[in-house]
Protein: o-succinylbenzoate synthase
Amino acid sequence: MSGNALPTTADLLATAMVVRLPMRTRFRGLTVRETMVFAGPAGWGEFGPFVEYDDDEASAWLAAGIEAAYQGPPPRVRNVIAVNATVPAVPALEVAGILARYPGASTAKVKVAEPGQTLDDDVARVAAARAGVARVRVDANGKWTVAEAIRAIRAIGEVEYVEQPCATVEELAEVRRAVDVPIAADESIRKAADPYRVVAADAADVAIVKVAPLGGMRATLEIADSIGLPVVVSSALDSAVGIAAGVAAAAALPTLDHACGLGTGALFGADVAVPFLPTEGAVTTRWFGPEHIIDRSGVPLADGPREQWWRDRLVRCHALLSARGPGRGRD
Ligand SMILES: O=C(O)CCC(=O)c1ccccc1C(=O)O
Ligand SMILES: [Mg+2]
Structure:
């Protein structure tokens, strides 16, 4: 909130809507994405921490939503953001159908190391993606041991980078020393008490940054500015409102050399607004200002108990933010 007072919970809840967005393809174990959006004087903000997150982790997401609704986007230096196709851990035969939702994409990010699947499944999925795009990056979400990562990376072959092959910073550093492909850090930044430890440990070549878990667009820009690594701005499987903040952060970066992971609107079967669907491999900046009206009859709303659960969660996270005082959401 960079010094601004927090809005009250009554302010936030007055316009809050809890939605259940159907996924076209299962992603991160989800077939429905529940999230909350609310409006403030600068436009719409999103509060959508995954349901299993505790309040401490979730409160950074609230800071991000409040920043969007009460401060709006930072000044931008570009309007068009190249995005990767996001390929969930689907059978190889389904990859072409996913890529078709990303017309013109030259990069695909392929999920690997899905529990219950094999390295052969990963190799086949990556091969199918290579058949459709020029460049492939993979994301293991920390699921490999060091030995598994080294073996898998050798089997998968050349990729733009491997995102979060293992869970810890030390393991990332060990894998990075053992292989030639670049390593990207995601969870080691967005879930870490100290996002800069990946640099001190020589654990990554690329920093994945996400507006919601990092506590907002400005907090994301600050990390991007000081981390000393090329960044990729990615989504947190946000609705169009949260994606607008990700796109705004990407649009404000002084340099941006990699496709961003902001095309996940293509994975939803419904959204709170016209989704950010990539055309020619890119999305274009758009802001849902205070004048924007979300048509409640056009969005799948949560039922009473789920809506109350989210409202209570917002109140608890708001208490954590106000106890913490102004400053970066994650401090
Ligand atoms: O980066 C992308 O292409 C999409 C975003 C994505 O993969 C993601 C979305 C929600 C939660 C976690 C992740 C992740 O990068 O691990
Ligand atoms: Mg990731």
About this structure: The radius of gyration is 19 Å. The pocket of 2-succinylbenzoate (ligand 1) is lined by residues 28, 84, 86, 109, 139, 141, 186, 234-237, 261, 264 (CB under 6 Å).
